[in-house]
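== Protein entry: sequence and backbone fold ==
=== Local backbone shapes as whole numbers ===
==== Amino acids and backbone structure tokens ====
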Amino acid sequence: MLFAMVKSPISMLMLMCLCLASSFQAGAVEAEIKNVFIDETISYDGHEFFRVFVETLSQDSDFKFTTLVVKEAQGEKSGSDITVEYEYDDIYQVTIYTGSKYVEQNAVQAAYAVKNKVDFFAFSQLSANPDLAASEL
């Protein structure tokens, strides 16, 4: 460890300040991470839904977003409630019943619906920008 090599307290303090300053400088240069999928599913069907959902969205190279979270909660009956979250808002929800043969179809439908909603959200943010002219949209 680097701090174990420093003998005097003043040298250690100077080294800590140097490390802190370099971490702030490195933070200013970092690029924004795009297209992050977070899997918070708990069942086999939930994991299968997530896998197909990610594969479907990954096929479109023009689709850009920051983070999509796929959450699963046990439903009231014998199914699971799957929710897709974007920008801390629930944008898609579906119930999948245990052992259903339609998990993949539901995931593909969810991927297309989520893509449309995220695109609409991005467009509405652009159109709300007063600095852009109508021809720039």
Notes: The chain has three helices and four strands. The longest helix spans residues 103-127. The radius of gyration is 22 Å. Residues 1-8 have pLDDT under 50 and may be disordered.
